[in-house]
Specification:
This protein is mainly α. It has five helices and no strands.
């Protein structure tokens, strides 16, 4: 019983950190929660990705959006134009992910994170 409470506490702590990062930086699921689920909770890559979507999209997405909208920090037309592509891309991407082995999926995910992080670091450094 004690181990269960420790695990629940760890899950809550990780969720809070990811929630703060989501609200602060506009990220969370793909960048933080998925690797944390894999590394700390021994999730398989696909299950971590699916779990992050249910955990983050409704609460973080909606609440973060509402706060940014209230602060007049939403480009409405641009955002609405992005929706069909994100919708279709999310569907196609999740179908493609199911065809990849967990190891290949984890490698592809890590490569994407590395390249995105390197691009951000270079852009910040050379500004």
């Amino acid at each position: 019983m004690h181990k269960r409470y420790l695990r629940w506490g760890a899950i809550l702590l990780v969720a809070c950190v990811v929630g703060v990062a989501g609200g602060l930086f506009g990220l969370g699921g793909g960048v933080l929660l998925v690797p944390l689920l894999v590394l700390l909770f021994a999730f398989e890559q696909h299950k971590a990705q699916g779990t992050s979507l249910i955990a983050l999209v409704p609460p973080t997405g909606l609440l973060g959006f509402l706060n940014y909208a209230h602060a007049h920090e939403v480009a409405w037309t641009f955002g609405l134009l992005l929706m069909p592509g994100v919708f279709l891309g999310g569907f196609l991407g999740s179908r493609l992910a199911q065809r990849l082995s967990p190891d290949r999926m984890r490698f592809a995910f890590a490569t994407l994170l590395f390249l995105a992080g390197a691009a951000q670091a270079v852009a910040a450094w050379w500004k």
